[in-house]
Write a structure and sequence with these properties.
218 residues, mainly alpha, Hypothetical protein af1432, 13 helices, globular, disordered C terminus, binds fe (ii) ion
């Protein structure tokens, strides 16, 4: 990667140590996923390295909003009010382009969409978003299953990763952006159904709100 030294210099100056180590983990994981799933490993590694480049306390909230406003993802004021943590991804696209001189649109797109999926994710964008979830420093319930799925199928792993994010947001009474739900629905509609365990099936049969039960009643 050309200019890697300059990017590392920027990241060590602007990110805290934990975020910097995470960025190196995402760089490496994105490279491996790209090799596994036939994408450009250089683009994946670059987007992985820089994906959190705007996640710095050195930028004021006003600067972050101004960066995001110059990205491809036009967050509304309501989006920002409800989910301020989303801001750093579109802001990152602008920092990568204007401060770090990244001109590759596919790389910039992958940085922009790494927190909220767009409605038509490219393979590279999925890879970087997934690498952000499963890089070796990440530890959370369910990460092992996502890592295992990422060994065999990108879409399966990406769907699991969106599911985990949505569950986390629900558990903490946090807002789920409509784009995330749209992307999840697009993935889920093509995914094989997970069969219900027998005990659960019996419970559902007794639940008047469940379709299976309604059919039986007719
Ligand atoms: Fe991030
Ligand atoms: Fe990240």
């Amino acid at each position: 990667m050309e200019n890697r030294e300059a990017y590392i210099k920027y990241l060590t100056q602007y990110l805290d140590e934990k975020r910097f180590r995470h960025s190196l983990g995402v760089e490496q994981t994105a490279r491996e996923l790209a090799e596994r799933f036939g994408e450009d490993a250089g683009q994946a590694a670059l987007a992985g390295l820089l994906h959190d480049c705007a996640k710095s306390r050195k930028y004021t909230p006003e600067q972050m909003r101004a960066f995001a406003a110059r990205s491809r993802f036009q967050l509304s004021q309501e989006d920002i009010r409800l989910s301020p943590h989303l801001l750093h991804a579109p802001a990152g696209e602008t920092v990568a382009r204007e401060t770090l001189g990244i001109a590759d649109d596919a790389v910039l797109g992958a940085i922009c969409w790494h927190t909220v999926p767009s409605d038509h994710m490219s393979k590279l964008e999925k890879i970087v978003s997934l690498a952000d979830m499963i890089e070796p420093n990440r530890e959370f319930p369910g990460v092992k299953a996502i890592r295992q799925a990422a060994q065999r199928d990108l879409d399966e792993a990406f769907l699991l990763s969106m599911k985990r994010t949505i569950l986390h947001l629900l558990e903490h009474n946090m807002v789920v952006h409509p784009y995330t739900l749209t992307a999840y629905n697009q993935g889920a509609v093509n995914a094989p159904r997970v069969p219900q365990p027998a005990a659960k099936r019996r419970k559902i049969a007794g639940n008047p709100r469940h379709k299976a039960h309604q059919k039986k009643e007719r």
